[in-house]
Write a structure and sequence with these properties.
Distance between the termini: 30 Å
Oligomer: single chain
Structural class: alpha+beta
Number of helices: 2
Strand order of the largest sheet: 2-3-1-4-6-5
Largest sheet: 6 strands, antiparallel
Helix content: 10-25%
Number of strands: 6
Length: 122
């Protein structure tokens, strides 16, 4: 365990602008890497035909597990992450190792950082 991080480092993640299948690929990939509040049976649902959907998950990024390569995304996925500086960097480097990541925007506050990225298959 990283001695510099004795406490948990949660990151909340919103996924939007994509199909429920692509949302599931991103969540399943991150659930394999980190502890999450999402259960293995929690599958993103499309609850409305035309209204855009947003799916949420929280990931504990202090300890990373072995990350399997993700399935191919059918289209790009928008991801909004919020958490502490260290946690956001950890999540970003994990995403970078598995997807093609394009920065759309980021904002920094006192303790928290927001990251808005576009994920695509490599």
């Amino acid at each position: 365990m990283d001695r510099a991080r004795p406490h948990e480092e949660p990151v909340s993640l919103e996924i939007s602008g994509c199909s429920k299948e692509d949302a599931r690929i991103v969540f399943d990939t991150l659930c394999a890497c980190f502890e999450s509040d999402r259960g293995p049976d929690e599958v993103p649902q499309q609850l409305h035909e035309t209204r855009p959907m947003v799916w949420l998950g929280t990931f504990e990024v202090t300890e990373a597990h072995e990350c399997p390569p993700p399935a191919r995304l059918s289209a790009s996925v928008e991801a909004d992450a919020q958490g502490g500086y260290w946690a956001i960097e950890r999540l970003r480097s994990t995403l970078d190792s598995m997807f093609s990541v394009r920065d759309l925007a980021s904002a920094s506050g006192d303790q928290e950082r927001e990251l808005h990225v576009l994920l695509e298959s490599r």
